[in-house]
Amino acid sequence: MFTGIVKELGKICRISGLGGVYKLSVEAKDIANSLNTGESVSVNGVCLTMTGKDKGILDFDVMGETYKRTNISKLRIGASVNLEGALRVGDSLGGHFVTGHIDCVGRIREIKRVGDNYSIELSFPAKYKRLVVEKGSITLDGISLTVGGVENSGASVHIIPHTLKVTTLGSKRAGDELNVEFDIIGKYVLGANK
């Protein structure tokens, strides 16, 4: 379980593998010291198990299914990723409950400046629209955000400059893909009302 509050921008330093399991290595200066092998880490919102670490390099195994269904398959050496260690009992929640189980990959339609802030319009497959709760939470690449508006084929979120500065959102452009996890509480409520 995570909160969607990014702790650090890591950098991809190795990606290898074919088909079944991929090996991913991420340079992490700050959170590396607080993590142990076997712990869950959110990498761009994807819950991965850390399989080892050495001098600030975190290693992960990524199942082929996860690789195909997330934007991890688009990452290249040197790319920045959002990192967050798992929520511990007694930690501040800060964001919202995030599982790290990606619902879909969305695509940025447009990034607009709105006064001192920014707005991102995101499209994703129409079947997921029912999971969007207006003014509820949504996680994009592991970042806890509030849904600003709901549309037929997507949603919009508003971003403060600080979030752009400390996450990968500051380098994103129209057409880029983001891992999307919809609010788990909204999903539970929807499931209970079926």
What does this molecule look like?
This protein has helices at about 65-70, 160-165, 185-190, and strands at about 10-20, 20-25, 40-45, 45-55, 55-65, 80-85, 105-115, 115-125, 135-140, 145-150, 155-160, 175-180. The protein has about 190 residues and is mainly beta. It has 2 domains: about 10-85, Beta Barrel (Elongation Factor Tu (Ef-tu), domain 3), CATH 2.40.30; about 105-190, Beta Barrel (Elongation Factor Tu (Ef-tu), domain 3). The strands form 2 sheets. It has a 6-stranded antiparallel barrel. It has a 6-stranded antiparallel barrel with strand order 7-8-11-10-9-12. The protein starts with 7 loop residues before the first strand and ends with a helix. The model has no long low-confidence stretch (mean pLDDT about 95).
Give me a quick take on this structure.
With 194 residues, the protein is mainly beta. It is built from three helices and twelve strands.
The counted number of beta strands is 12
**Lateral arrangement of strands in the main beta sheet:** 1-2-5-4-3-6
Count of helical stretches: 3
Q: Roughly how much helix do the residues carry, as a percent range?
A: 10-25%
Q: How many domain units?
A: 2
Strand content: 35-45%
Mean pLDDT: 93
